[in-house]
Design brief:
The protein is an alpha/beta fold. It folds into two domains: 222 residues, DHBP synthase, CATH 3.90.870.10; 103 residues, Rossmann fold (3-Layer(aba) Sandwich). The strands form two sheets. Strands 1, 2, 3, 4, 5, 6, 7, 8, 9, 10, 11 and 12 form a twelve-stranded mixed β-sheet that branches. A hairpin with a 4-residue loop joins strand 2 and strand 3. The structure holds threonylcarbamoyladenylate (TXA) and magnesium ion. The site of magnesium ion has 3 residues, from loops.
């Protein structure tokens, strides 16, 4: 058990004394949880193997699942990556700081434990003032996976981090709710045609506009196949691990809007008869007549839905709910990342 301090930091104008304290903990090999624009990250000195080991222990994360390294400046790529392509530079210049992670060839400077033994690194510059001032003040790259225990939803508030990591980290910086609410987009830039490994906070349409063609990893189109059977096919080790599934059964209903609506009415009614406690996740005000115990209007637009999704998952886990019934939304823009997280969480996908 570690003594965990919690400090509230102003995200518009981070207090230097608090950032100094956090940076000192990172430099000495400790663990600091900090907000990024996507989700909260569990940070340690990326170049210190024993500090990085603490991340894996605190999260109970398998050691072959590599971490994202958060840097402060594009020039740092020269130190930590090799053979960075023209396209990768272009994406970095255009979208950093921001919710985009690039997978690149790794240099000798990065210890193996940080990259889960791979010869590539995943790297990004976050666009949150607290993260940026922490990385700058510490003067070292910070390895940070999402600050949840493995298998739980990524945290979008400091209170979520407290649920998972209290007593396991030295400091939690509370910088309020994260702006995006879903993790960064991960692109493998080491293959001839870049590959989308995880849809996230930066829509792929924006990336295509910048560099043209990118291919989509099959596990995104078909997450339930997940490449679980064969070790050969995953490009990102994260894909082979079970993704977050709430304790409740997630039932995702996909298809034309009217049919989806009718199916959900039927499912909600059946659950009510069976005395199951259910939640309908509703978007775009499609229907407010679902007879579920809770009908949750997540939002009309992708930004609001993405900010709320993990919050709802955590709420459901904490309130003994038996089932979540969710409507399909369009897999474009941020909708691709939202649908990806819903499909991975789903026990059943019903096509109507
Ligand atoms: O928004 C985010 O990306 C947040 C914030 C804290 O930056 N971080 C985050 O980290 O979501 P994590 O560890 O929860 O997810 C990182 C994903 C994992 O699926 C991991 O397998 C993959 O990136 N990854 C990391 N390094 C990789 C590499 N060298 N090659 C392929 N995939 C990699
Ligand atoms: Mg994660």
């Amino acid at each position: 058990m570690v003594l965990t301090r919690v400090t509230r930091v102003n995200s518009n104008n981070p207090e230097p004394c608090k950032i100094d304290m956090a940076a000192r903990i990172i430099s000495k090999g400790g663990l600091v949880v900090f907000p990024t624009e996507t989700v909260y990250g569990l940070g340690a000195n990326a170049l210190d193997p024993s500090a990085v080991k603490k991340i894996f222990l605190a999260k109970r994360r398998p050691v072959d699942n590599p971490l994202i390294i958060h840097i402060q400046h594009i020039d740092d790529l020269q130190t930590f990556a090799k053979n960075v392509s023209r396209e990768a530079h272009k994406l970095a210049r255009e979208f950093w700081p921001g919710p985009l992670t690039l997978v690149l060839e790794k240099s000798q400077r990065v210890p193996e434990i940080t990259t889960g033994g791979l010869d590539t690194i995943a790297v990004r510059i976050p666009s949150n003032n607290i993260s940026l001032s922490l990385i700058r003040t510490a003067g070292i790259p910070i390895a940070a996976p999402s600050a949840n225990v493995s298998g739980r939803p990524s945290p979008t508030r400091a209170s979520h981090v407290l649920e998972d990591l209290y007593g396991k980290v030295d400091l939690i910086i509370d910088g309020g709710r994260t702006r995006i609410g879903l993790e960064s987009t991960v692109i493998d830039m080491t293959s001839t045609v870049p590959i989308l490994l995880r849809p996230g906070g930066l829509p792929i349409e924006r990336i295509k506009e910048a560099i043209g063609k990118i291919s989509i990893h099959p596990s995104i189109l078909n997450p339930k196949n997940d490449c679980l059977q064969s070790n050969k096919h995953y490009k990102t080790p994260g894909m082979k691990y079970r993704h977050y599934s709430p304790k409740a059964d997630v039932i995702l209903v996909e298809g034309p809007k009217l049919r989806v609506r009718n199916k959900i009415i039927e499912l909600a009614r059946r659950m009510k008869n069976e005395q199951s406690k259910s939640v309908c996740i509703m978007t775009k005000n499609m229907n407010n007549n679902y007879s579920a115990d809770i009908v949750w209007f997540v939002g009309n637009d992708f930004e609001t839905i993405s900010r709320n999704l993990f919050e709802i998952f955590r709420y459901v886990d904490n309130h003994n709910i038996d089932a979540i019934i969710a409507e399909e939304i369009d897999s474009v823009d941020l909708g691709l990342a939202i649908m990806d997280r819903l499909r991975r969480a789903a026990k059943e996908i019903i096509r109507v």
